[in-house]
From TrEMBL:
Name this protein carries in UniProt: ribonuclease H
Family, per entry: Belongs to the beta type-B retroviral polymerase family. HERV class-II K(HML-2) pol subfamily.
Assigned EC number: 3.1.26.4
Domain spans labelled Reverse transcriptase: 97-212
CDD domains: RT_LTR
Length: 217
């Protein structure tokens, strides 16, 4: 009997995901090529009187050059990065290989972060989140894909992020103000919804009954 119940829940969730996938573009979040994008606002990291920094380019090992080209193409196709010509800033690209062999392209933003004026927005306290759950019996979790890359960078701020011959159109991981910017967006989207708590790109939905949980999802 439990197996049938689990199958029923799985079908309900698949149905809900299908409805979300085709939701209209007027919502706060639009679906674009399997990666969402926040329609408003754009992220605007500000620097005041900073002298542009040009990082020394490091040669990418031969064995990684083809995987790097493929990843750059993927990011470009998703609208996360685009090619750039002349630039005042240039940050260092770092290639990290994950446990499954897939590479991740990181950028060293330490020089830029020293100049960024951070707009602070308090991150939630884990203990406070736990205390609000109360006696809830049913839970569901959501994890946003490439969360920061779902936030567009304001045009002038894109010029602060060039690496090689590309620049970021979306907010890069490693930007000192990224956590505050992203949590403010999540707070605006989910902050007034009961039975939902979020910490960065992790969303927890909780309820006393299965029906309430599915409604929350």
């Amino acid at each position: 009997m439990l197996g049938y119940f689990e199958g029923y829940l799985e079908l309900k969730v698949i149905h809900l995901v299908g409805k979300i996938y085709v939701s209209n573009q007027g919502d706060s979040w639009a679906h674009q090529r399997l990666l969402g994008v926040v329609l408003n606002p754009n992220a605007r990291p500000q620097v005041q009187g900073a002298i542009p920094v040009v990082a020394k380019v490091r040669k990418i090992p031969l064995a990684l050059q083809e995987p790097v080209r493929s990843e750059l193409k993927r990011l470009q196709d998703l609208g996360i990065i685009e090619e750039v010509e002349a630039t005042e800033w240039l940050v260092l690209i770092v290639v990290a290989r994950k446990g499954d062999g897939v590479i991740r392209l990181c950028v060293d933003l330490r020089a830029l972060n020293r100049e960024v004026v951070v707009d602070r927005f308090p991150l939630p306290n884990i203990e406070e989140i736990v205390s609000t759950i109360g006696g809830a019996k049913h839970f569901s979790t959501l994890d946003l894909t490439s969360a920061y890359h779902q936030v567009e960078l304001e045009k002038s701020s894109q010029e602060l992020t060039p690496f090689g011959t590309f620049k970021f159109k979306r907010m890069p991981f490693g930007l000192v103000s990224a956590a505050s910017v992203f949590h403010l967006i999540m707070h605006k989207v989910l902050g007034n919804i009961g039975g939902v708590k979020c910490y960065q790109d992790n969303v927890l939905i909780f309820a006393d009954t299965v029906a309430e949980l599915l409604s929350g999802v």
